[in-house]
Amino acid sequence: MAGCAHSGETDATRPIPGDITVALAGNPNTGKSSIFNSLTGSSQHVGNWPGKTVSRAYGSFDHGQTTVQIVDLPGTYSLNASSPEEMIARDYLISGQPDAVAIVVDASNLERNLYLAVQILEIGVPSLVVLNMVDVVESQGTKVDVDALSERLGVTVVPTVARKRQGLDVLRGALIDVASLEPAS
Question: Which of 69, 136, 150, 168 has its CA 20 to 30 A from that of 34?
Answer without folding.
Answer: 150
